[in-house]
What does this fold into?
Amino acid sequence: MTTAALWTTVLVASLACFALKLGGHLIPRSWLASERVSRVTTLVTVALLVSLVVVQGFADGRTLTVDARVPALAVAALALALRAPFIVVVVLAAGTAAGLRALGWG
It folds into this structure.
């Protein structure tokens, strides 16, 4: 990719992001106040977070991988279900992954 093509791509993407943000400010509040829009935005947020966790936890490039991240995610889910503080969840998950990797798995 040439330098000119790269800068053109960056500028077009920047303009598209600005237009999208401006469009969000121009939408009438009555459209956003409906119960349906509120439900959909909540579900979209959860779906995006779950997809991010799945892609980062179970994928390695273009392949499905089961390594130390999977039990670490399970430990994190259990800690969250038990309402542990976020830092405890992170430390438990990281410790699980590190321990399993130290034992040679993943």
Notes: The beta strands are 59-60, 63-64. The longest helix spans residues 3-26.
